[in-house]
Write a structure and sequence with these properties.
The chain has 325 residues and is of the alpha/beta class. It contains 9 helices and 12 strands.
Length: 325
């Protein structure tokens, strides 16, 4: 293990103020288009596939507007199955909570393209493919206000607008339907260590830390309050047919956390206001793909995300059906 580099904004040990946050924001540049890579493909799938058009509808659930600080404004979209039935449970998929984690977004779109129709025959389905469009465009972990969305899903006091709008969308679309499963799609990348953790240490005025090596492969983060080990194992078994799984380090950990079973760690999702923690679904997981591995490709990472979603929802459907007999 080694120390994280000292970030070159701010004074070590002193949290950022408005000036330091502005310095950080000025460095962020648009690298890709949310409209071209997310919105247009989503709308194109609907217009070109009559079966999907019959099985789903696009919901525009809000706008985040950063034009007052020199950034863009973004309309937010979800896809919901139709007809929506309050007597059926709902499967929720969220992607792009961290916008730089590309396969979280593209994996959600791949699930919509290849598996949405079949899945919607058994349960209500709600997919939010890109929760943080500005971060997607700038390949960033934070919002332009230097806030981590995946520490912001506080139902009583959302930590950022993107989290608040996503929670409100899920709540309003669920209606009387119970949430059955919630799968939140993420990546662990080399930039977690090289950029985003050093920036967090500087932003918060934290003491220097030592980093853990980025695990080479796919793993899952389950909710410590809703462990559901067999559910997690079913998803891992599906993913291993697509890409390799992450091994533990010499201490038996992944990213500093002890393994529950191979390739699975637990977090208290509600405590840390992670996206997976705000719903009441009994089946919850956060995926973590390693796109910088020499052993995989971007296409495999996207496919692994979709495979995990399919396996997780199917397991939850089967488990629920079994409990009725």
């Amino acid at each position: 293990m080694k120390n994280f580099r000292q970030y070159d904004i701010g004074v070590p040990g002193r949290p950022w103020g408005a000036e330091e946050r502005q310095q950080w924001l000025k460095r962020q540049v648009k690298q890709r288009s949310y409209e071209d890579l997310v919105v247009l493909p989503l709308k194109s799938m609907m217009s070109r596939n009559p079966a999907l058009y019959q099985a789903a509808s696009i919901v525009e659930y809000g706008t985040v507007d950063y034009t007052s600080i020199g950034q863009g404004a973004y309309r937010l979209y979800a896809l919901k199955s139709q007809p929506w039935r309050d007597d059926r449970p709902t499967a929720i998929v969220t992607g792009g909570v961290h916008g730089y984690e590309t396969s979280g977004v593209l994996g959600a779109l791949l699930f919509i393209q290849n598996h949405f129709i079949e899945t919607a025959r058994a349960v209500n389905v709600l997919v939010l493919p890109c929760v943080t469009p500005w971060a997607f465009e700038t390949v960033n972990r934070w919002t332009p206000l230097a806030v981590d969305p995946n520490r912001s899903f506080n139902r009583d006091k959302p930590g950022c607008e993107e989290a608040g709008l996503a929670m409100a969308c899920i709540r309003s679309q669920l209606g009387k339907s119970p949430a059955l499963v919630h799968i939140d799609l993420h990546e662990t990348t080399d930039t977690d260590n090289s950029e985003f953790t050093p920036a967090k240490i500087a932003r918060d005025g934290l003491a220097a830390e030592k980093w853990s090596e980025i695990p080479d492969g796919f793993y899952l983060v389950g909710d410590a309050r809703r462990p559901q080990i067999i559910f997690q194992q079913a998803m891992l078994d599906a993913v291993r047919r697509v890409t390799h799984l992450a091994a533990a380090d010499e201490d038996g950990c992944i990213i500093g956390d002890p393994l529950v079973i191979p390739h699975l760690v637990h977090y208290d999702c509600a405590k840390y206001y992670l996206c997976g923690g705000h719903t009441d679904a009994p089946y919850v997981t956060t995926t973590e793909v390693y796109p910088d591995s020499k052993r995989t490709t971007p296409e495999e990472c996207n496919a692994a995300q979709a495979a995990c979603v399919v396996a997780g929802i199917q397991f939850a459907i089967n488990a629920t059906a079994g409990s009725r007999h």
